[in-house]
Amino acid sequence: MRPTIQEALNWASLFLKQHNREEKVAELLLIHVLGLSRLDFLMQLQEQIRPDVYDTFKQMVTRHATTGIPLQHLTGEEQFYDRTFKVTKDTLIPRQETEELMYYLLKDLNKRPHLTDVVDVGTGTGVLAITLKLEQPHLNVYAVDISDAALRVAKDNANTLGALVTMQSSDFLSHFIETDQHVDVIVSNPPYIPYSDLDSLSDTVKNFDPHLALFSEEDGLYSYRTIIAGATHVLRPHGLMAFEIGHNQKEAVTALIKRAFPDATVETKQDMFGRDRMVFMYQDV
């Protein structure tokens, strides 16, 4: 007799718990393989599950439990700002902190309609650049990344979501410096984890997220130092710069900005857990 959806869910939840994994993953994976909305899923818990679907589900659950492969790599997608983005092994999985960065940046741009040219440095999946364009269509948005594989994912996401974003291969801001191109806003969620923290990370992160998007030299500050140095050539007067940061990097990143832009105002914003997670620089305050 074929198992019901509820029985499949019960098995997977227990299996994940036994492997010290988050039980919620079972429901998310089952909804994915069934192709149902969460409401339909809940309404059909007593329905039987097809054998081929159940086999696929068991394989996904087993892989996640035994290797730590992220849910998003199994489903190939992640939600960001209420939109579905494609993710692959070549891109960092979008996280909640980056949504908070987007929220605060959009609030600032609403107050500054004269800032129209924006570059997202290290775009990865393209979530920042694409969301900016879709939320504020008047913006001219550029997205750069040194990884051609990541850029292909970002382009796919832009095409799927209908966002007109200019994608460019670039090592941080080097393309803009070389072409003497200037922008009003620089935003980035760059690599900021020190290599010394590698062993402390979960297997889901260190074994599957691309290290190019995670780790940075100089105690995690190399990316900030390079972008900020480039910003002195690229950012227009009265411009704005916004970074996601590690929870203990507030002072260091603020000092780097103040050395390069001594007259600017620098503010730190906290995430929903009260951790210092974003640094914003304003030249028009």
Automatic annotation (TrEMBL):
<feature type="binding site">
    <location>
        <position position="145"/>
    </location>
    <ligand>
        <name>S-adenosyl-L-methionine</name>
    </ligand>
</feature>
<feature type="binding site">
    <location>
        <position position="172"/>
    </location>
    <ligand>
        <name>S-adenosyl-L-methionine</name>
    </ligand>
</feature>
<comment type="function">
    <text>Methylates the class 1 translation termination release factors RF1/PrfA and RF2/PrfB on the glutamine residue of the universally conserved GGQ motif.</text>
</comment>
<keyword id="KW-0808">Transferase</keyword>
<dbReference type="GO" id="GO:0102559">
    <property type="term" value="F:peptide chain release factor N(5)-glutamine methyltransferase activity"/>
</dbReference>
<feature type="domain" description="Release factor glutamine methyltransferase N-terminal">
    <location>
        <begin position="7"/>
        <end position="76"/>
    </location>
</feature>
<feature type="binding site">
    <location>
        <begin position="122"/>
        <end position="126"/>
    </location>
    <ligand>
        <name>S-adenosyl-L-methionine</name>
    </ligand>
</feature>
<protein>
    <recommendedName>
        <fullName>Release factor glutamine methyltransferase</fullName>
        <ecNumber>2.1.1.297</ecNumber>
    </recommendedName>
</protein>
<dbReference type="Pfam" id="PF17827">
    <property type="entry name" value="PrmC_N"/>
</dbReference>
<comment type="similarity">
    <text>Belongs to the protein N5-glutamine methyltransferase family. PrmC subfamily.</text>
</comment>
<dbReference type="InterPro" id="IPR050320">
    <property type="entry name" value="N5-glutamine_MTase"/>
</dbReference>
<dbReference type="InterPro" id="IPR040758">
    <property type="entry name" value="PrmC_N"/>
</dbReference>
<dbReference type="GO" id="GO:0003676">
    <property type="term" value="F:nucleic acid binding"/>
</dbReference>
<dbReference type="InterPro" id="IPR019874">
    <property type="entry name" value="RF_methyltr_PrmC"/>
</dbReference>
<dbReference type="InterPro" id="IPR004556">
    <property type="entry name" value="HemK-like"/>
</dbReference>
<dbReference type="InterPro" id="IPR007848">
    <property type="entry name" value="Small_mtfrase_dom"/>
</dbReference>
<dbReference type="InterPro" id="IPR029063">
    <property type="entry name" value="SAM-dependent_MTases_sf"/>
</dbReference>
<keyword id="KW-0949">S-adenosyl-L-methionine</keyword>
<feature type="binding site">
    <location>
        <begin position="189"/>
        <end position="192"/>
    </location>
    <ligand>
        <name>substrate</name>
    </ligand>
</feature>
<dbReference type="Pfam" id="PF05175">
    <property type="entry name" value="MTS"/>
</dbReference>
<feature type="binding site">
    <location>
        <position position="189"/>
    </location>
    <ligand>
        <name>S-adenosyl-L-methionine</name>
    </ligand>
</feature>
<dbReference type="GO" id="GO:0032259">
    <property type="term" value="P:methylation"/>
</dbReference>
<dbReference type="InterPro" id="IPR002052">
    <property type="entry name" value="DNA_methylase_N6_adenine_CS"/>
</dbReference>
<keyword id="KW-0489">Methyltransferase</keyword>
<feature type="domain" description="Methyltransferase small">
    <location>
        <begin position="105"/>
        <end position="192"/>
    </location>
</feature>
